[in-house]
Specification:
Order of helices and strands: HHEHHHEHHHHHHE
Shape: elongated
Distance between the termini: 46 Å
Number of helices: 11
Strand content: 5-15%
Structural class: mainly alpha
Number of strands: 3
Length: about 280
């Protein structure tokens, strides 16, 4: 078989007969990304979905899950605005991206350490001939996720790792290796940590300013400095000059791109609840 057929390439004759506008009609590349959530805490952090009652149909207020609004659904819009501002050469957005990415990375590392510590704790306290599988929900929630935000995916990974960690905590509690109070503490600490990060990241607010404005010290620059400092965003000199940037930060559009289509800097996120796995 020829390499032309393997690659699915057009022959010269076919290429010449293709309308000239075919290339301009190409759509964006898109992939299908799915995640699976097994715990109510994971669902709360991801979408803010609240469990109204237990499966037996009761509607006791004491049994309802009280979920905080700090979740990835509310974060998605903020991250879209943040990374859009970076493309428009906003130095404050560039700094905030770097700061939040570092904080999420540190949180994920701490979570991995906690999980490994708990695994070691469990292994030291059970007989050699005792084995157990990982715990999974008999009916997990499966979501399809699409977002153009780099930071959003870092938060998504953190939430999925929390979901996995909580499943381990629940298993340890189930087999009498963690007390109810220890279980509550483990879950409370990781939830609070993640919610605090989401709240911090979502505190970003759009203000139209560029590095050129900062260099000129014009009215836009002075207004931006006042607004951003009020929410704790104070870039270093390196970030203000564009000398310090995170390796995953979006590329900065040139002046012509910013003027021709500024809205292109913003990419709408999409989060779709697709299906739930059937009970075994």
């Amino acid at each position: 078989m020829s390499s032309k057929l393997i690659l699915g390439a057009l022959s010269n004759e076919e290429a010449s007969s293709t309308p000239n506008n075919r290339v301009t009609e190409l759509g964006r590349l898109r992939s299908h990304i799915k995640i699976e959530i097994h715990t109510y805490e994971g669902a709360a952090l991801f979408s803010g979905v609240k469990r109204e009652s237990d499966q037996d149909g009761t509607d006791d207020n004491g049994q309802k899950k009280k979920f905080t609004p700090h979740n990835l659904t509310m974060l998605a819009q903020s991250m879209m605005i943040l990374e859009g501002d970076i493309r428009l050469d906003n130095p404050y957005a560039d700094f905030w991206f770097d700061s939040i990415w570092t904080a999420v990375t540190e949180f994920r590392e701490e979570l991995k350490t906690k999980k490994q510590s708990l695994i070691s704790y469990m292994e030291d306290r059970v007989p050699e001939n005792f084995t157990s599988s990982e715990s999974f929900s008999v009916k997990p929630i499966i979501y399809q996720v699409r977002s153009g935000s780099q930071l959003y995916y870092q938060f998504l990974y953190a939430v999925l790792e929390i979901d996995s960690f909580i499943r381990l905590v629940m298993l340890a509690s189930h087999v009498a290796l963690l007390s109810p109070s220890a279980r509550t503490t483990y879950i409370r600490d990781v939830m609070r940590g993640c919610r605090a990060l989401i709240s911090r990241a979502a505190s970003y607010r759009h203000t139209p300013v560029t590095r050129d404005d900062v260099s000129a010290n014009n009215e836009k620059a002075r207004m931006a400095a006042e607004r951003y400092e009020s929410i704790g965003i104070s870039p270093s000199i390196g970030h203000m000059r564009g000398e310090t940037r995170h390796e995953f930060a979006p590329e900065i559009h040139n002046v012509a791109e910013r003027k021709s289509n500024p809205a292109d800097a913003y990419i709408e996120p999409e989060i779709v609840k697709e299906t739930a796995a059937e009970e075994a």
